[in-house]
Amino acid sequence: MDLCDLPAHELTARLKAGAVTAADIVTSTLRRIDAVDGPAPSADPAAPDRDTPGLHAYISLQRERALGRAAALDAQLARGENPGPLAGVPLSVKDIFCVAGTPSTAGSRMLANFVAPYTATPVARLEQAGAIVIGKANLDEYAYGSSNESTAFQPSPRNPWDPTRVPGGSSGGSGVSVAAGEAALSIGTDTAGSIRQPAAFCGVVGVKPTYGRVSRYGLIAFGSSLDCPGPLARTVRDAAQALTVMSGPDPHDATAAAAPVPDFTEALEAGVKGLRLGLSPDYVRIRYPDPQTGAIQDTEIDPDVKRALLDAAQRLAAAGAEIVEDVPMPNTPLGIPAYFVISRVEAASNLHRFDGVKYGYRTPAAVADLRALYRRSRAEAFGPEPKLRILMGMYVSGAQYAKQYYQRALRVRTLIRRDFEAVFDPAGRHRLHALLTPTTPTTAFPLGAVYGDSVLMQYADLLAVNANHAGVPALSFPGGLDSHGLPIGLQLFGPDWSEATLFRAAAAFERLTAGDAWRAAQPKGVTAAA
Amino acid sequence: MSDEITPELFNYLVELAALELTPEEGEYLRGQLNNQLKAIRELERIPVPDDVPAAARGVPYPAALRPALRADVPRPSDLADAIRGQAPDTDDGYFVVPEIPHTDLGTGA
């Protein structure tokens, strides 16, 4: 095991004890990246060879910046100063966040030449706590996708457990970098599962906090009422530490709530005794349109995933949790249909700012007038997903269609929220502290198997999306491996602002399974290359 | 069933969206939109009582959770040049664009 494979809290402990330097940690991480990541991806459609070997987690690396920060941190330690709770932790940043002086591309040709003039609040807070930005991680274009294949920067990231499969998305590079030792920690965003689904596919922990817990300042916006920045990490403790640092109000974002921020690492050892954890049949059966006929199908999730869920419930019960079965979440299947409407309206609105005038791509072609400049620049720089989302967003919010689509979707969103309120109500029938579900209906699917079918791709998020509609926190944690040796992700949903409870339950499961054989397995895409 | 988004409606949306598409791209995107609308129709599967309000977001924001708005006063920024420097074409602090289309309202002399 190399230094870069250690969890973040272990790295910081060794650094503070004087056993290693921050420069050692960064060097070990960069060496791993050089061994496994492959050549930098390109947004030039003529350039890339999509079959270039490597995991391709990063769009850009900040080697000099990282080594400079490491040297500064080592100097701080030499002076006897406390460098912070994440001192020396190598951090990958989903390239949807602005980081001053770095290319900040959103995975789009539109922003391939954009250099951020300022740093996003949650990234600045992680850096202030001692984390070291190693590079900007690849993602679906503008975070629109569930496989990372839609990025303009090709080759797209590969799953470290099986490089013929997708890492999930949209925070795919984040999941890959953490799973492969190319970072100990990542910051991603979650609009329908974009942190949790890649965390599940890559075998790491991913947290979508309560909406408003973390500032969105400096985040290139997708769905403004749904977007939540959050951490991906190899252990529950590391994710808890990162979220503690990132959270809290921000004068630059009026939606960053003034809710008290506990130290999320404090309750990690408390165990699950006394916790009421729910299992819902609505998270074991799924309803989605058949890719060929469009007919709605009702089917069970992957049997390996279901087995892992039930096994986890039994082990948590044996450790003292009270498992409540048959919890009704009747509006679960409506999450994706409502999301198809709400997220598209918000995305279309947010994408109007990209016009070839103020920043980003401008067509080099001679154009007759300003409108032609807008059209040509957007046509050349947006990939298929942004175009699709703009068109759908304009259609379902148009004056003559809004009542049928947008207004109805927003009212269904209320019903989805009520599902959660009912089962978390302390005076209600179920009185849950958390709902335990799978994160995804399947494990990682092969590259190219779904990409191009925008409906089926969206349904990859159907077990995750309702946390975004409802605003509640949700956490994905590794729950085992399937029969192909691919990671299975399990998920906990909780009431608003209850992240501490989710961390507590996930940490208990981590301890309960510490001796399991699957915990010792390493991603073969790393062991082969490194 | 005929497509909800016909080629004519699609072309109108493309114009509204300030895009232009190749015929192949247009055909693919129109097909995807119509497939997505089939999934969206699932929203009609359940009754939604009239008293169910629209939710613009999930988490309620009682006053105690809303941070106080800062005073609306101009503050100096040292980022102006870095921000303007991102523009594809500028001249003396102005964005340079091609001819801006206008409608002659016939009010001139």
Could you give the order of strands across the largest sheet of chain B?
Answer: 1-2
Provide the β-strand percentage band of chain A: 5-15%
Proportion in β-strands of chain B: under 5%
How many β strands of chain B by DSSP?
2
What's the mean pLDDT score of chain A? 96
Give the uncertain stretches of chain B in residue-range form: none
> What sequence of helices (H) and strands (E) makes up the elements of chain B?
HHHEE
Distance between the termini of chain A: 10 Å
Structural class of chain B: mainly alpha
The count of strands of chain A amounts to 13
Could you tell me how far the N terminus lies from the C terminus of chain B, measured between alpha carbons in angstroms? Answer: 56 Å
If you had to describe this structure to a student in words, what would you say it looks like?
- Chain A is built from 17 helices and 13 strands.
- Chain A is α/β, with parallel strands linked by helices.
- In chain A, strands 1-3-2-4-6-5-12-13-11-7-10 form an 11-stranded mixed beta sheet, with helices on both faces. A two-stranded antiparallel sheet of chain A has the order 8-9.
- In chain A, a hairpin with a 5-residue loop joins β12 (474-481) and β13.
- The longest helix of chain A has 22 residues, at 403-424.
- The radius of gyration of chain A is 22 Å and the shape is globular.
- Chain A starts with 7 loop residues before the first helix and ends with a helix.
- Chain B is mainly alpha-helical and 109 residues long.
- In chain B, 30% of the residues lie in helices and 4% in strands.
- Chain B contains 3 helices and 2 strands; from the N terminus they run αααββ.
- Chain B is flat, with a radius of gyration of 24 Å.
- Classes of the chains: A alpha/beta (530), B mainly alpha (109).
- At the A-B interface, β8, α9, α10, α11 and α12 of A face α1 and α2 of B.
